[in-house]
Amino acid sequence: MFWHILHQLKSKDAVVRRKAAGQLAQNPNERSARVLEAVLNDSDAEVRRLAATALGKLENEQRFRPLLRTLGDPDPGVIVAVIAALKRGPEEQVVPALEPLLRHPDAGVRGQAAQTLEGYGWRPSDSDEEIWFRVAKGQFFQAASFGPAALPALEATLTSCSSSVGAGVVEALGHIGDPRIQRPLLQALKSNDPAICLAAISALTRLAAAEAIAPLLGLLRHQNGQVRAAAIEGLGKLRAPDAVEAVCGLLRDPVWEVRREAAETLRRLGDRRAVDALSAALTDTDADVREAAVIALGSLADARAIGPLVLALKDPTSGVRRIAAATLSRIDTDWSSLPQARAAAEELKPALHDNDPGVRHFVAHLLAALDAVPLESPPPACASDPVAVRRRNLAVNCFLRILRDADRDLRQAAAEALGRLGGEGTQSALSRARSDFDAGVRAAAERALEALGGSGADHPSQAAL
Questions:
Q1: What secondary structure does DSSP assign to 121-157, as a single string?
Q2: Domains of the chain by residue range
Q3: Superfamily grouping for domain 1-123
Q4: Nearest Cα to 310, choosing from 286, 345, 280?
Q5: How far, in Å, are 160, 173, 231, 303 from residue 256 at the CA level?
Q6: What pTM value is reported for the model?
Q7: CA spacing 20 to 30 A to 246: which of 38, 187, 371, 461?
Q8: Residues 160-208: pLDDT tens digits?
Q9: d(Cα 292, Cα 278) in Å, to the nearest integer?
Q10: From the centroid of its chain, how far is CA 272?
Q11: pLDDT digits over 216-246, tens only?
């Protein structure tokens, strides 16, 4: 059988030679040493790798010389097998042969060399060796602690490593305080691997690198949704004014996380050119996106958003309704009397028949405040300015009722609104709301009372209305 295997190693068929070398690698024989040494020069890399593995299992001291010569093999897999086979070799021969491999182009070779050298008790003799040794072991942040001197080793690793390793290299590069790191980071943005792209975006954003704006704009078309979202966030943190139009377009992205990030970034950019796109996003299918759009519109404080925000008051999600109500008051404390709000009233009326009782309740009182539908017992008009005062009192009455709603978000919104409106009974109701079971409502009531300048009794100037 043994002689049959040796005969197969001379076959012209690489598959046959691989099978024979594999059998020897499983059960090596001292008599095969010379043959295996010759097979280290085989034209097939897999045959050479298996021959190196087989030689490493022999007890023949003569095996190390051909293995050491094979460290120059063109195939990294063969070199890794040779290094593993040399673990029990003479230190004075093996260590000097492995030291240069810490700088090998292949990450696998570097890692195997570092592991074997460490097994011999070897330690770097200078900072340059220390850097390459740390990089070879995957300790990228420790290598980066040496500063710009680590750039060559980290860059070399970035060009030849797997995606998971590459992301770690990019993160480490981002912690080197030197302008030269921008070049490899910008290059990493072109990677086909999303993990490397994400790490590069994060590093460049942290460095506030203006040079990253143009490539980040290009990544808005990346096929990976996480990369698109990260690019949007990066543009927002870099305060890129030219990104507004492109980010607005991503409010229609198929991935909801991308749409949400687009809304949040438009808030960060603070450009009123985004009002129309954000207003359209108030009808998004995802509640988190709608909420982000409402918050962004509140930050822009543009009166063009009043109509869409009024319609958002019938949103099926109470959090969106609450934020929309607060946003409207932030844009204009007297928003309910504006033409934009009244124009939206007709579109709100179908919500009086909504399946959600919270929506019905909220919309009914809002429409009453807008004079779009009558209340059962409207408060009497004031002789001095009957139209304006009636609208204010209707709005106050609306929010006083909502202050007793079962939905804590609506109660908090009502407390915030009453803090701006005042009116008869407002401070008494807010004083009671300070005992609400929800901390958010209690805090809103406290702030509202402070804004009205009272602690419990109704303010005379408001009661006079």
A1: T---SSHHHHHHHHHHTT-HHHHHTTGGGGHHHHHHH
A2: 1-123
A3: Leucine-rich Repeat Variant (1.25.10.10)
A4: 345
A5: 34, 31, 15, 27
A6: 0.66
A7: 187
A8: 776 668 889 999 998 897 888 999 999 999 988 899 999 999 999 988 8
A9: 9
A10: 25
A11: 999 999 999 999 999 999 999 999 988 999 9
